[in-house]
Write a structure and sequence with these properties.
Elements: H1 3-23, H2 33-41, H3 45-58, H4 60-78, H5 83-94
């Protein structure tokens, strides 16, 4: 781990410990996206940076999963496995058989 990554990791751990200490004994209940957005708007710039780092770290596997899906679709298209579905969709579009989402 390079010096900058270690320093960033240490800062993140310090912020995490401080956040837990600040919230100790207080029930935190963010039950809707609106409440979460309001809470995020109240964060300091450093806390927002910490949030982004945590999200990047915690959802890295989700990005890898999306990448796997993209690879699978590309592979299936290249192999012609989606040709029938694509042609049916194009035919439906040409014959105005589509509904808006």
């Amino acid at each position: 781990m390079d010096r900058h990554a270690k320093s960033r990791e240490e800062r993140m751990e310090n912020r995490r410990a401080q956040a837990y200490a600040d919230c100790e004994g207080a029930a935190m209940s963010l039950t809707s996206v609106d409440e979460i957005e309001r809470a995020i708007r109240e964060l300091s710039p450093g806390e927002v940076e910490d949030l982004y780092e945590r999200l990047d770290h915690n959802f890295e596997s989700a990005r890898n999963f999306e990448s796997a899906i993209d690879k699978r679709i590309s592979s299936d298209v290249a192999a012609g496995l989606l040709d029938d579905a694509i042609f049916r969709a194009l035919e439906d579009e040409a014959n105005n058989r589509l509904r808006p989402l």
